[in-house]
Design goal:
With 21 residues, this protein is an all-alpha fold. Helices cover 90% and strands 0% of the residues.
């Protein structure tokens, strides 16, 4: 379960990063 949560948070970080570009 921890791996899934980490994956989700990583996806959110990437989405925010891409939005800032």
């Amino acid at each position: 379960v921890a791996g899934v949560i980490r994956n989700r948070s990583a996806d959110m970080v990437h989405a925010l990063y891409n939005m800032n570009k």
